[in-house]
Amino acid sequence: MKILILGAGQVGSTVAESLVSEANDITVVDLDGDKLRQLQDRFDLSTLTGNASHPSILEQAGIADADILLAVTQSDEVNMVACKLAASLYNTPTKIARIRATDYLEHPQIFSKDNFCVDFSICPEQILTDYVCKLIEFPEALQVLEFADGHVSLVAVRVYEGGPLVGNPISHMHMHMPQIDTRVAAIFRQDRPIIPEGDTVIMAGDEIFFIAATEHIRTVMKQLRRMDKPAKRVMIVGGGNIGRRLALALENDYQVKLIEYNKKACEKLAGELSKTLVLHGDGTDENLLLSEHIGDVDVFCALTNDDENNIMAALLAKSGGAHKVISLINRSAYVGLVQGGKIDIALSPAHVTIGSLLAYVRQGDVAAVHSLRRGAAEALELVAHGDRQSSKVVGRLIGEIDLPKGATIGAIVRNGVVIMGHHDRLIEPDDHVIVFVINKQMIRKVEKLFQVGLGFF
Question: Global pTM?
Answer without folding.
Answer: 0.85
